[in-house]
Amino acid sequence: MILLTGATGFLGKALLKGLSRDSVVTLSKKNADINADLASRVPLLQYFDMVIHAAGMAHVIPKLVKEGKLFFDVNVEGTQNLLRGLENAGVPRSFIFISSVAVYGLKKGSLIDENCPLLARDAYGLSKIEAEKVILEWCNRNNVICTILRLPLIAGQDPPGNLGAMIRAIKGGYYFNISNGKARKSIVMAEDIVLILPVVARVGGVYHLTDGYHPSFAELSSLIAKQLGKERPYNIPSWVGKTIAKMGDLIGAKAPINSDKLLKITSDLTFDDSKARKELSWNPIPVLKGYKIWT
Questions:
Q1: pLDDT per residue over 189-233, tens digit each?
Q2: Distance, CA of 257 to CA of 95 (rounded, Å)
Q3: Rounded to 10 degrees, what is the CA torsion of 63, 69, 72, 78?
């Protein structure tokens, strides 16, 4: 049997859809087979052969100190409570943790591999680093096959975060690219992540999963616009983007764009998945060919 945590979240739903429902027990705060708030208590569990730990607080920018603390409550303390529950029930054969490329703390770079130093300084990235350490130590101590998947942007139905914001903006007619949208970002289909889980569970390791193409903002926004029946998004020159970003710096957190965000959307940030291709025979569908959104 497989235990899937975070089963009601964006990625959890996609994973559950691709797995055999008869072999999966779900765990979430509510609407799951096991309803438990991992951040506050140790869950009562049975024995599971495999655990897929997808529960966690999503990547957002905290506005207050206490919001930053929530990342550690959910992503670190929640993980520790899950591991305590598994110890009480009997440790699994394999443990798969859904981590993030945010652990590197990078805003730009090309084909970064898994050996890159973990330099995150934000609460989300730091909490993911700490959760990885806790899991690695626990798996080593209990002789459990440990897999850590550091994922980039995930393409799936009704996505949250930046991809969801892009879809809504294109749908509303207010999305635009800056500097021709040339910046490339790593991305992966949720459906492909599901397919690799049985393979990676047998070998363990730390892996990046991407579509291997790393589409540009222009390519991705054009794909979404076409599916929505919208015109190709407009482009604004770099100098206009910089002017708007400087205004955003003055306005503060409510501004749609500032200098920090401008750097992110005009810089390449891609990750190397050659390790997964070599060791796991990872061969995903390019997002530009396979991604279908809800309209």
A1: 999 999 999 999 999 999 999 999 999 999 999 999 999 999 989
A2: 39
A3: -110
Q: Please give the Cα distance from 151 to 207 (Å, whole number).
A: 8
CA gap 99, 154 in Å, rounded: 12
Place of tokens 């990750």: 271
Q: How far is residue 41's CA from residue 96's CA, in Å, rounded to a whole number?
A: 21
CB 98 within 8 A of CB 152: no
Mapped onto helix, strand or coil, the DSSP state of residue 285 is coil
| Token pair of 29 as six digits | 């705060």
CA separation (Å) from 89 to 80, 83, 84, 176, 260? 14, 10, 9, 52, 46
Q: Does residue 295 register a pLDDT over 50?
A: no
Give pTM, 2 decimals: 0.92
Sign of the dihedral defined by the CA atoms of residues 125, 283, 290, 113, in that order: positive
Going through the chain in order, the beta strands assigned E by DSSP cover: 2-5, 24-28, 34-35, 50-53, 94-100, 109-112, 145-151, 153-155, 176-178, 187-189, 205-208, 234-236, 269-271
Tokens of 279: 């060791």
- Is 54 a residue whose pLDDT tops 60? yes
Query: Which DSSP letter does residue 73 get?
Result: I
